[in-house]
Amino acid sequence: MDPEILIEDNRIKLARILNKFDNPIAKYPKFGVWTYLLDSEDGIIVFDPGPRYKVFSIRKKETYNAERTIEAVEHLFPQKPITQILFSHYHVDHAEAAPHLQYLALKKFGLLPS
Q1: Contacts of residue 3, Cβ cutoff 8 Å, sequence gap at least 6
Q2: Residue 104 parent element (H or E)
Q3: Which helix (H) or strand (E) holds 36?
Q4: In sequence order, what are the beta bridge partners of 44?
Q5: Strand, coil or helix: what is 13?
Q6: Per DSSP, what are the bridge partners of residue 16?
Q7: Is the four-CA dihedral 103, 90, 82, 3 of positive or negative sign?
Q8: Separation between Cα atoms, residue 71 and residue 37, nearest integer Å
Q9: How far is residue 98's CA from residue 52's CA, in Å, rounded to a whole number?
Q10: Does 94 or 37 have the greater pLDDT score?
């Protein structure tokens, strides 16, 4: 799913992307969890980066949610780095991809998000 722009006023201020999540027990929107991208003066704040791995697999299979977040930031907010990563709460479906996203952001933007 492509990023969805939620607030725009001469520039995109808030967008979201639907991350992949394979928990058949829970009914998430379209079987995913939302990651929100907020534009600030210093850079992009990522809220709830989502899970890194598929839950119901024998081997750890990547969801590629961190990569999808980087792609969305590059597309929607060119030339702006990810500066912060925040969580609504610390469950796997909201926070697990954060360390990998930090690593990718450091490689891409030269800045480690806090």
Answers
A1: 15, 16, 17, 37, 72, 75, 76
A2: helix 98-109
A3: strand 32-39
A4: 39, 82
A5: strand
A6: 4, 36
A7: positive
A8: 12
A9: 8
A10: 37
Tokens linked to 82:
């990810």
**At residue 22, what is the residue type?**
D
- The CB-side HSE value for 36 (13 A sphere, CA atoms) comes to 12
Q: Look up residue 111 and give its two tokens.
A: 């800045």
Predicted confidence (pLDDT) per residue in 1-59, tens digit: 688 899 888 888 999 998 877 666 655 555 668 999 999 999 999 999 998 887 766 67
Rounded Cα distance, 41 and 9, in Å: 15
Extract the tokens encoding 16: 């979201």
- pLDDT digit string, tens, across residues 50-90: 988 877 666 778 889 999 999 999 999 998 999 999 999 98
Q: Which residues pair with 17 in a beta bridge?
A: 35
Decide the pairing of beta strands 4-8 and 32-39.
unpaired
| Predicted TM-score of the model (pTM) | 0.87
**What pairing do the DSSP bridges indicate for beta strands 44-47 and 4-8?**
unpaired
3-state secondary structure of 44: strand
